[in-house]
């Protein structure tokens, strides 16, 4: 009886214990939501900052403590941007041992996890940007990418794989990972308190302002790299994924705001490439190099960067071009016999053949800038020469406008033959099309434009 009602669970219990389903893979309900929450992280990134805010109501902020808190904010922030991010996650430069120890210490003081954990997630983020394997995919929402991914439990098995063998071989990284809680307690809270306490006697102020509240600000600032930098700004290098460039994000994140560039050239020690762009992390890495503390600063060649920029511009131009009316593509126009063309024109249809292409200008006659008489003179004739200088050498804009009026091609018309031949030989055709297969018409290159001046004798 029991076996028939619960066969599955009975069978599972009898055999070896099955793998437990991770809480993150179950649906959230009113009764189990608290199991989905990562309470340790909630305490570290929400609870403690709230405690600090409440305390700040009673603890007066002294000037020296304020200066120290801001200074230590930058020190620990640089620990993340230059250390955790550019040095360890991306190996964009090499550091001497003293610099590594310094960065591992102040980076730990930002309370964002160990280098090993942080860099592993970040490498997955770069490898699987915007997918389910991206640990902080912005596709799951701005708030999720900012803080939700830490506040809610994640199944670590679902995060994309990333190779961290180099980090496992780095003694500074391994030591920091093993002693992480001690590092956090000392560099996050005790050290800033000691400085303010021994320095000017403000022990509790140092704890609250240079410790707790400074941690909260550094955390929120660097979280913006995962949220704001994937949401606000331009995409000058590639727009297939979410990373974006914006000066506001750069100002908040110590230069990590040129994130579109960064995702394209992740091992470049710079995030901003123009001298006037705000990237203090880059400036400080460069300074360390001058001091002999950093070396092997990696940089992509200008040529490679420009190629990315040009290709993205090209893509934008293709998109703009695709929105415009360029006339019916030549290969989709019906083929007309010359006599049929002449007959239709005689019967009152405003048809005009130019370079083998037939245009219906009926509605345009009254608007023709050169007057009705001039345009009427070409109807029913081969107006190629008249249009191209015989009577008036029409502008590029005129050729463009004319192309929107085309309705057919004359059998044996020269351009059509050229197009057919090119297609037969299967060469050069691609050169005239964008990546969506749209034909590219450059200025002065309309079919109706005849490159050499034509004598008027024949047409007149
Ligand atoms: Zn990113
Ligand atoms: Zn990165």
Biggest sheet record: 4 strands, mixed
For the record, give the distance between the C-alpha atoms at the N and C termini, rounded to a whole number.
Answer: 104 Å
Q: Provide the low-confidence segments as ranges.
A: 1-14, 456-460
Strands in their spatial order, largest beta sheet: 3-6-5-4
Percent helix: 40-55%
Number of helix segments?
21
Provide an overview of this structure.
The chain is mainly alpha-helical and 460 residues long. It folds into two domains: 290 residues, no CATH class; 130 residues, Flavocytochrome B2, Chain A, domain 1 (Roll). It is 51% helix and 4% strand. It is built from 21 helices and six strands. The protein has a four-stranded mixed β-sheet with strand order 3-6-5-4. Strands 1-2 form a two-stranded antiparallel sheet. β4 and β5 form a beta hairpin. α4 crosses α12 and α5 packs parallel to α12. The radius of gyration is 34 Å and the shape is elongated. The protein starts with a helix and ends in a 35-residue tail after the last helix. 37% of the residues are buried. It binds zinc ion (ZN) (2 copies). The site of one zinc ion (ZN) has 5 residues, from α14. Its cofactor is Fe(2+). Its EC number is 1.14.19.1. It is found in: Membrane.
List the SSEs and their pairings:
Elements: H1 2-5, H2 7-14, H3 33-36, H4 39-56, H5 63-89, E1 94-95, H6 97-108, H7 115-127, H8 142-151, H9 165-168, H10 171-178, H11 180-200, H12 203-226, H13 247-252, H14 259-264, H15 280-290, E2 294-295, H16 302-322, E3 335-336, H17 338-346, E4 351-354, E5 357-360, H18 372-376, H19 384-387, H20 396-403, E6 406-410, H21 414-425
Parallel strand pairs: 3-6
Antiparallel strand pairs: 1-2, 4-5, 5-6
Helix pairs in contact: 4-12, 5-6, 5-7, 5-11, 5-12, 11-12
One zinc ion (ZN) binds near residues 243 and 259.
